[in-house]
Design a protein that fits this description.
Elements (H helix, E strand, L loop, with lengths): L27 E4 L6 E9 L3 H9 L9 E6 L5 E10 L10 E8 L1 H13 L3 E2 L4 H8 L5 H12 L3 H11 L2 H25 L5 H37 L1 E7 L5 H9 L17 E7 L2 E7 L9 H16 L2 E7 L3 H15 L3 E6 L9 E4 L5 E4 L8 H16 L9 H13 L5 H6 L1 H19 L5 H8 L7
Parallel strand pairs: 1-6, 7-9, 7-10, 10-11, 11-13
Antiparallel strand pairs: 1-2, 2-5, 3-4, 4-5, 8-9, 12-13
């Protein structure tokens, strides 16, 4: 078990973990509003010299948390603007440091001049994500919550927004911490048995039986958290819907109709699409990435072969596959289905296109346990409402969860590692070598600590916060 300097066993630290050895001592400044003209522009200042720099720029430090209208001065003493100044003394601020916000008119020239005035008085330009990084290092946020800040900013659907807010509120962190705390208890009891192994064999067997049962329950809870995290990862990246089928089946026309723009070139000539094309749309609150692929056929030309290879790769990675075929080409559709069904499985919807040419009406049908088939005409958008509803149902069935957690690859890797390490086939394997079992549980605990940043590296922090926008 992890030990502190006094030899005491350590559990998971509280969610808000400060590592003062890594907290910067400089004072930073940056724009907090997007570049370009606007009605209002905001510049942020954070660090130990914030009060002194503010006094130099506006003449005084306003009362804490009271928006105060004040003139703002250039380094040469001339007024550059009048605006609201808000002072947030640490540690009760976003970063945990003394922090100031300057609200000015949204002229890029004014904002640039204000930043230069702050720099001239000792502030340094902030790196991307440095304000939130300082909030993490000062214990205002754990790493999961800090990452949720970026997810909230980039949320493009209602579901993603809900998941980001839950993560910022600590839902993901508390779930991971609760599991980790119980894992610590199991580790402590197991290692106590190793240190004090003078009990009877019967008592020892009961002891291991109880600990194995607790570990099994912990694995179940990690698996549930991982399931929700996987669904959250789909929310973050958008669910991928691949359009595939024979050449000239109408895939590109369907993509344009679903996305509402002419992203794909449409032509009666087969083989027009030779590469993977993408478009995004909001489908009932879910971010969807539509992927139009090259027609699947036996190609001889090298460029077409590469396009087809990429099509199969997209099919393999898709969350949902739409097999589009010409209603007048029943034989071709049967061949395509035989080739794609083994790859797509339950992720497949058949789209019978161009029904207007054979005198049919839009409909939905399903034969036995086979895939759902939707009859449409993409060219005039007949039947698209039926198709959209079935797409939504299929994707919701795949991604719906009561507790959506916006997750990243590092979260999934940590949870998968923890799930694997606490997974024992039976009580015999759990108790066969208790020292090895204790080591597995220690590594699982460490993986869970990596989620909140209780155990992390400078390189990982640089990678995470380097993706934030400047000013956040």
């Amino acid at each position: 078990m992890d030990r502190d300097a006094g030899g005491r066993a350590q559990g998971l630290k509280p969610a808000l973990v400060a590592d003062t050895s890594r907290v910067p001592v400089s004072t930073i400044a940056a724009m907090a509003t997007p570049p370009g003209p606007g009605a209002i522009g905001i510049v942020r200042l954070s660090g130990p010299e914030s009060a002194r720099i503010t006094r130099d720029v506006v003449g005084r430090v306003p009362l804490a948390r009271l928006a105060t209208l004040l003139p703002m001065y250039r380094a040469n003493g001339t007024v550059l603007d009048r605006g609201l100044v808000l002072y947030f003394p640490g540690p009760a601020s976003y970063t945990g440091e003394d922090m100031v916000e300057f609200h000015t008119h949204g002229s890029p020239a004014i904002l640039a001049a204000l930043l230069q005035s702050l720099y001239a008085r000792g502030a340094s330009p902030a790196r991307p994500g440095e304000f939130t990084e300082r909030a993490f290092l000062n214990g205002k946020l754990d790493l999961l919550q800090a990452e949720a800040v970026a997810d909230l900013i980039s949320s493009s659907t209602e579901q993603a927004l809900k998941a980001a807010n839950l993560a910022m509120a600590g839902h993901f962190s508390r779930a991971a911490a609760s599991i980790a705390e119980r894992l610590v208890e199991v580790r402590a009891l197991l290692e106590a048995g190793i240190d004090f192994s003078d009990e009877s064999a019967v008592e020892d067997a009961h002891h291991l039986e109880s600990l194995h049962a607790q570990t099994t329950q912990i694995q179940t809870e990690i698996s549930e958290l991982l399931r929700n995290a996987r669904h959250g990862a789909q929310l973050a990246r958008g669910q991928r819907v691949v359009l595939c089928g024979s050449p000239n089946a109408g895939k590109s026309t369907l993509m344009n109709a679903l996305s509402g723009n002419t992203r794909a070139i449409v032509s009666p000539q087969p083989g027009t699409t030779r590469d993977v094309l993408t478009a995004e749309l909001d489908l009932g609150g879910m971010l969807i990435t539509l992927i139009d692929t090259a027609g699947l056929h036996d190609a001889e030309e090298a460029i077409e072969q590469e396009g087809i290879r990429r099509a199969w790769e997209a099919i393999t990675e898709a969350d949902l596959v739409l097999l589009v075929y010409d209603a007048a080409e029943e034989e071709a559709s049967s061949v395509s289905l035989q080739r794609i069904l083994p790859e797509a499985g339950e992720r497949l919807i058949l789209v019978r296109n161009k029904i207007d040419l054979v005198g049919e009406l839009p409909e939905q049908k399903q034969s036995g346990a086979g895939p759902i088939e939707i009859a449409i005409t993409a060219r005039n958008e007949q039947g698209l409402d039926i198709l959209r509803e079935n797409m939504r149902r299929a994707l919701v069935r795949e991604a719906e969860t009561d507790t959506p957690l916006l997750a990243r690859e590092r979260h999934l890797r940590a949870l998968m590692e923890a799930e694997s390490l606490v997974g024992f086939s039976d009580r015999e394997e759990f108790g066969a070598d208790v020292v090895e079992t204790a080591e597995r549980l220690r590594l699982a605990h460490r993986a869970l600590r990596e989620l909140t940043g209780d155990f992390t590296s400078e390189d990982l922090l640089g990678e995470i916060f380097g993706r934030f926008c400047i000013g956040k």
